[in-house]
Amino acid sequence: MKSQIRIGLLGTGLMGQPVARRLAAAGYSVAVWNRSPEKALPLTRAGITIKQSSAQLLADSDVIICLLSDATACDQVIFNQDALHSVGKNTTIIMMSTLSPDIVVEQARKASSVQAHYIDMPVSGGTIGAEKGSLSLMAGGDRKIVDSLRPLLSHLGKVTHVGGVGAGQLTKLANQIIVAGTLSLLSEAFTLAQQGGADPAKVREALLGGFADSTLLQHQGERMVKGDFEARGAAKWQLKDTRSAVALAKQLDLTLPLTETVNQLFSQMIDAGEGELDHCAIIKQIQRLNNVLI
């Protein structure tokens, strides 16, 4: 029964809250922990338990979903030696945070040392996808474990097994290259249209349904032309991912000129103090470079 599976979720930020709510609404027993407990308080209205310590959550969970911000936070909360010993035998750790492939391989090794299972499963689809249950979940790890989790994960979105541990993060890096690059190109397209005398909102409308259409044009493109830059996916995290992609490319002796340029653009945006804005606010950086304002 669903209620017999104890789900523990670490990190109740923009993605963690809707994920927790959907699982609770599906009938699962869900507990959460967050560094700032007050951010998790609204979840109690959905019947979700707030654990007072991360160690307590680790010990009391059959499935641990990690949506912490970065590798440092993950290591501090789960993968230091003391924390690991709180994880029960045969517990499954689902790593939904976006990390580098080499980091998740090492985390999987540590999980194995306490006889826990580890699945590398970053997600794409943003807060809208998390709220609607339409996320893309990119799974790296033991196929049998992934398949056993499908009934649970079906409430969050579509699961694709892409290979062993690390393959999920490789897939997410590919996703982030496409997202960051597309947002940058949309920014240039709207800026060009504006300066040429066209209405960017009408240009976007005209492009919908054609070869240039995409989820990003539909959603982030609309936010760009309206100037709605409230963070649903902060630019500082986009930069973290493009930096990871550039670093991995260098390790693999690859040259990714477009990704390197996009990485530079997001770096300039963060240097301008706009890291807390949504990643679609990259249009502001393109505007700044051209001394124009849409």
Automatic annotation (TrEMBL):
Location of the 6-phosphogluconate dehydrogenase NADP-binding domain: 6-163
Active-site residues, record numbering mapped to chain: 172
GO molecular function, a single term: oxidoreductase activity, acting on the CH-OH group of donors, NAD or NADP as acceptor
Domain 3-hydroxyisobutyrate dehydrogenase-like NAD-binding: 166-284
Transmembrane segments: none
Keywords: NAD, Oxidoreductase
Name under which the protein is recorded: NAD(P)-dependent oxidoreductase
Organism: Leclercia adecarboxylata
